[in-house]
Amino acid sequence: MSSASITGEDCFATLAELWCSPQDVEQTELRERAEQLAEALSERHPEVAAALGRFLADPLAEEDYVELFELDPKCALYLGSHTFEEPKTCAQSGVSDRNGYMIELQGIYRHFGLAPDPTELPDYLPLMLECVALTDGRADPVRSKLICDFILPFLPPMRGRLEELQSSYASLLDATERLLQHEVEAQPTGDNRV
User: Fold this and answer.
1) Alpha helices of the chain — where are they, by DSSP H?
2) Which of 42, 48, 117, 154 is most buried, by the most CB atoms less than 10 A from its CB?
3) Is 70 part of any domain?
């Protein structure tokens, strides 16, 4: 995978899988792709490659992943949960800010003809990155809105939590955020190589 041939789709699809539970992905193949991605990005985006390298150097066991992100998570992978207050009652959930955020995300997915797994909440980070990957190369303002309004502003609270927990996933979040920022910067030129 050379720097010249790597696409945003390759990058964001790999990042989406790295955020998924280790039991849901083929770890050996994913690690190889992630290492190739870091190598391919090293010249064009060395800070992204370095952050990805730090993450890959400190792998997390499946049990630790579950403790960090699942069941009673220390740091949820649902971006809205880091920003919006959880409603106290069922009646409040229908009018909560997070509910509005998720309804808009569903609209964005529909706009692109995507039908995410209905058992997953729309603000699940791997799902959002998968959408960014699948829409790579589209000069669509809705794609930019997804990145600029629905992902990037919601990453700092998650970063703070991961840093507080001293998790290697803080490095993966750094790589993710930087790559999204590069994507936004590249968008006006039509250059879909991250």
Assistant:
1) 8-19, 27-44, 46-57, 62-69, 90-93, 97-111, 125-134, 141-145, 155-164, 169-186
2) 48
3) yes
Quote the pTM value.
Answer: 0.89
Q: How far apart, in whole angstroms, are the C-alpha atoms of residue 106 and residue 25?
A: 25
| Beta-carbon contacts of residue 49 (< 8 Å; ≥ 6 apart) | 38, 39, 41, 42
Helix (H) or strand (E) holding 194: none
For residue 37, the tally of other CB atoms under 10 A from its CB is 25
Least confident of 7-11, 125-129, 188-192: 188-192
Structural domain boundaries, residue 43: 8-189
What pLDDT is attached to residue 88? 61
Residue 2 located in a structural domain: no
Average pLDDT over residues 135-146: 93
Total domain count, the chain: 1
> How much of the chain exceeds pLDDT 90, in percent?
72
CA-to-CA dists, residue 182 to 11, 32, 40, 46, 95, angstroms: 12, 23, 15, 12, 34
d(CA 192, CA 176): 16
Mean pLDDT value of segment 58-63: 89
